[in-house]
Design brief:
Length: about 140
């Protein structure tokens, strides 16, 4: 279960990094069509990370009594929630860009691309903090 959890986290980071690489100034039609698919893979991998993490919390590892009182566990869950909420706007933008491309052939504006890219950067920065929280809570720091 630990392996699946770590794999899901790595996949989540990879797909989010791929989104950032594709969502850049001068984006073309091919990239506009690719972004919603990358975003879906990001979403699925993030859900897999959550599901495997919850399985570890309830049935494996050290159990509820170890993790729930730890403030670093709470911070880790808050980071996950913040990333999920921040990802909504780019996700909706990617879908909208694809629909617009299919309907009129128009590509997203530079401002729209910059806004989505900025949120993806923040998501990645927050995601980078999650392993630190995991290490701190696993070592019992903060208990």
């Amino acid at each position: 279960m630990a392996y699946l959890h770590y794999l899901a986290i790595v996949l989540t980071a990879g797909f989010l990094t791929a989104e950032m690489a594709v969502c850049r100034p001068g984006i073309g039609a091919e990239q506009v069509r690719l972004l919603p698919r990358l975003d879906l893979l990001f979403f699925v991998s993030a859900l897999l990370a959550l599901a495997t993490g919850l399985l570890r919390l309830f049935f494996y590892a050290k159990g509820l009594g170890f993790y729930l009182p730890n403030p670093f566990f709470i911070v880790k869950m808050a980071l996950y929630l913040a990333i999920a909420l921040l990802s909504i706007k780019p996700s909706l933008a990617f879908i909208r860009w694809r629909k617009t491309l299919l309907a009129s052939g128009a590509l997203p504006s530079p401002d729209a691309i910059a806004g989505a890219r900025r949120l993806i950067h923040v998501e990645l920065a927050l995601l980078a903090l999650m392993p630190l929280m995991a290490v701190l809570m696993a070592r019992g720091i903060g208990r």
